[in-house]
UniProtKB/TrEMBL annotation:
Gene3D superfamilies: Protein of unknown function (DUF541), domain 1, Protein of unknown function (DUF541), domain 2. It comes from the Bacteria. InterPro entries: 26kDa_periplasmic_antigen, SIMPL/DUF541. This is SIMPL domain-containing protein.
Length: 214
């Protein structure tokens, strides 16, 4: 049991920091009456995307292929297949933002390729999170001292510190480009990295000396 007065405060901080990662998706598509033709074209277009991403190293931090789809198009009146469709999507993570716009344009200029993004974010282990937590603790201590000073007291010890969670609030933008073929002129693209909001909060309880109540 604690003897003496206690002050309970909440320390909180909001910050905007520069993003560290940019993600976008590249989706290659194909359509034909023959399934084999769709598979061949899809493999060819996916390979062309891979070549461009290989050339973009080391700006590309990682890439992940997912959502491979091949499906038939049928008539409403029955199950007769009139065409085959295929798509394969790749998620690309970039750390060098100076190369991001050019890379997205080159990918979007490929035949039957759609590019969507970017989505800005921080790394999971970003120093911004640690700095926000430290700032929240400092804010809690400053608040406790202010309340103690108003009572003619001073903070003597920390009793409890609880983390209310650190919540990154990513801001994003989306630009989508779909190429109709190599002859299409690529659009001009200017990307401004969007700041990321970071919020940290703690609950703290401190003991203080006896107030001077005049």
């Amino acid at each position: 049991m604690v003897d003496g007065p206690i002050v309970a405060v909440r320390g909180e901080v909001y910050r905007e920091v520069a993003p560290e990662l940019a993600r976008f998706t590249v989706t290659a598509t194909a359509r034909d009456r023959e399934r084999e033709a769709v598979l061949a074209r899809l493999a060819e277009r996916a390979a062309a995307v891979r070549v461009l991403l290989d050339a973009a190293e080391p700006a590309v931090d990682r890439r992940e292929t997912g959502d491979l789809r091949v499906w038939p198009e049928t008539k409403r009146s029955g199950e007769r297949v009139v065409a085959w469709h295929g798509s394969v999507a790749t998620t690309v993570t970039v750390t060098d933002f100076t190369a991001l716009g050019e890379l997205m344009l080159r990918l979007a200029d490929q035949d039957q390729v759609e590019v969507a993004g970017p989505w800005w974010s921080l790394r999971p282990d970003s120093p911004a999170y640690r700095e926000a937590r430290h700032a929240a603790i400092a804010d809690a201590l400053a608040r406790a001292r202010e309340y103690a000073e108003a009572l003619g007291s001073r903070v003597t010890a920390l009793l409890e510190l609880a983390d209310n969670g650190l919540a990154p609030q990513p801001m994003m933008t989306r630009a989508a480009f779909k190429s109709g073929g190599p002859a299409d002129a690529p659009p001009e693209l200017e990307l401004d990295p969007q700041p990321q909001s970071v919020h940290a909060a703690v609950e703290a309880r401190f003991t203080i000396t006896e107030p001077v109540l005049d």
